[in-house]
Amino acid sequence: MTMNSINSESNKTIVLAFSGGLDTSFCLHQLASQGHQVHTVLVDAGGMSAQELKAIEANALKLGAHQHHTINAQQAIWDEFVVPLIWSKARMRGEYPLLCSDRYVIVSLCLQLCDELNTPYFAHGCTAMGNDQFRFDQTVHSLGDYQIIAPIRDLQAEVTGNVRDHELAVLGAAGFVMSSQHQHYSINENMLGVTISGSEIDAFQAPTEASASWVKAKADWPATPGQWQLTFAQGVLTQLNGQAIEGPELLQQLNQQLAAYGIGRHIYTGDVSVGLKGRIVFECPGIDGLMMAHKALEDLVNSKWQNQFRTQVAERWAELVYQGFFYEPHKADLEAYLQNSQSHISGTVTLETAGGSLLATAVDSPYIVQDQNAVYAQSCDWSPEEALGFIKLTGQGATLVNQVRRAS
Do residues 363 and 349 make contact, with C-beta atoms less than 8 angstroms apart? Predict the structure, then answer.
């Protein structure tokens, strides 16, 4: 369903996924101005203070929301996304750890509210240019029979020139002024990290200091090196520095503490589903630290074949999640394998930094694959003759190929 198909029908009850940014603020203003009862839903995916949540609620009501709902989804995002992400260590094209994946939980919770309000209308602020529209729409299609309203996507068919400038102008004329940062950048922030696009980033130019968010500049790094001990039980992080802690709180602490040392800022260029090259700046200090620690432990505990196959699973899992297939059964199949591979991923990893770069410096686990009589580059419990036989038989195929080709 497009915006045009409901313009003549006022007083519809619509659930709008609302972030408080430019696009969703424009959506709310337009829908409310057309006489619809808009229930805005801010799904608290982390990364915002209580004061910021209250400010977004106040703006929603000022812009015309019939009722505003704030729903805490951090534990759901940890369970449904972060845990399998860390198991796989999936990064799109080896770089981007899918920070957009709170979208799937956002849609799911919004649709639950649609059911409670007995309305089929769900609205979002996605454009026609990026991957988020597919993530939102495909999740809706996967979860039930609802009607999608996408005011920004519809607006792009009506407005020539810069759509964001048009949105700012409409809101400004109605007395609503967006923050200066939102005028230049599209910013998405959650417990996973923060992504920034727009302005010079979209133009493939060097990001300015104005695009900085969590990660601190070198001049602000602490003088004392940082150290953290992360303890895992069957692949799930359970303790930070010896203290039991829930996943969302743990990730929040890592985000703040690692960002202070300049950890976690990246630039990613990827292929958007609709055929464009998309570029973002993203910051994910906590995810970087979790992935590094888990990999250091898993590399020592699991077999060679498990660790090799992990990269293949990660690539497919990343592709499915990035493209919008969060509820594809194949993704659940991959996660069943990943969970089975975590049976012995238990132990403690030490992370250290003096700023800028992070290292996993020590690993302790009862399941480290090691032999006290055979230590790499130091000692072995096989004979020189056995070593020569191993070399000969292992390399026999390559030796024969070269012998034949040299003789021809």
Answer: yes
